[in-house]
Write a structure and sequence with these properties.
mainly alpha, three-stranded mixed beta sheet, two-stranded antiparallel ribbon, elongated
Length: about 325
């Protein structure tokens, strides 16, 4: 059985390193600081261990209460509530590793935050069993949302048409694992949006603005969506293409959420700069806009398309009956 004094000793040895991880200083005594970190870290590790064995702890007070468990998860991803990841890793390595099938604390964390990163299972599986240097839980979740390959950054996006406007000019939206443009497709990974999404991304984006200003992948992604999803109609289009999984209920609520997330976000560069330029170039071509107008006006749905074709056939017969005497 692990003695709290042993855990406290490890925390005491790392006290200065833990304190240096925060931008603000803690005006509390060493004893109180160690006690605070001890309580928080042991609670988190125990919670993760139990969550990793849900069947065994299905009657656990916390895990059996979905609402309470959700509130705890939301608290753990708040940027202001973070514990340095290294101390949790060290404590798990020395005291609780033998109680878990996951030898690495990063795997325990990944499993607990699965609901926040479940849209990228292949990345998760690929990274399983690997050590990754992360600062804290917010940084960890950001890591799993980042692309597996480094993207080139260009100028920030200044202008881009909405998803509906692009669709009307012939851009085809397709569900894919990565976000890229291949004529005439715009491949976009699936994005599940629920009640926790706004809080999650708000914290990650705030962290990126402070720590990854030149590699703000999620800020760039939300910035791109901010242009694409201007109205509920834009959201509805991507929902129909299975690109957005709407668990909020209202398409309008999603467009407003994305718009809110991008308020006061400073974007000096973007990894989607080239993509936006290609889309703008496509949209600016008159033939694409004219074809899009023709499609949206006369072939927006099956019945209108059939009516248009019949109208053209009738027009053709009428025209032929007029010019026939002069031809024969």
């Amino acid at each position: 059985m692990t003695c709290p004094k042993e855990i406290a000793r490890i925390i005491e040895e790392n006290e200065h390193k833990i304190r240096s991880c925060y931008s603000e200083s803690f005006d509390i005594s060493r004893e109180d600081f160690v006690k605070m970190v001890l309580k928080d870290s042991t609670f988190i590790i125990e919670l993760f261990l139990r969550a990793d064995k849900k069947e065994k702890y299905k009657n656990d007070y916390l895990l059996s209460n979905p609402l309470l468990n959700r509130h705890i998860l939301e608290d753990l991803i708040l940027l202001e509530n973070q514990l340095p990841f290294f101390i949790l890793e060290e404590l798990h390595e020395k005291f609780s590793k033998r109680h878990s099938e996951n030898s690495l604390f990063i795997d325990l964390s990944r499993n607990y935050f699965y609901s926040c990163i479940k849209s990228i299972p292949k990345v998760m599986e690929k990274e399983k069993g690997k050590k990754k240097e992360v600062k804290h839980f917010t940084d960890l979740i950001r890591y799993f949302h980042c692309p597996t390959k480094h993207k080139d950054f260009g100028d920030s996006i200044r202008d881009l048409s909405t998803a509906t406007q692009l669709y009307e000019t012939g851009v085809i939206f397709k569900l894919d694992e990565c976000l890229e443009r291949t004529q005439p497709l715009l491949k976009i990974p699936q994005f599940e949006i629920d009640d926790i999404t706004e809080g999650l991304f708000r914290n990650i984006m705030a962290w990126e603005q402070c720590y990854y200003p030149s590699e703000a992948y999620l800020c760039n992604y939300m910035g791109l969506l901010d242009y694409l999803l201007d109205t509920g109609e834009d959201v509805e289009l991507l929902v129909e293409k299975d690109i957005i999984v709407n668990s909020l209920g209202s398409n309008e609520a999603i467009s407003k959420m994305v718009n809110r997330l991008c308020l006061e976000i400073v974007e000096e560069n973007s990894c989607y700069s080239e993509l936006a330029q290609k889309l703008n170039k496509h949209f600016d071509q008159c033939c694409n806009r004219n074809m899009g107008l023709l499609k949206s006006t006369y072939f927006s749905n099956l019945w209108r398309g059939i009516a248009t074709i019949f109208g053209l056939i009738i027009f053709g017969f009428s025209l032929w009956s007029i010019i026939r005497p002069y031809v024969v």
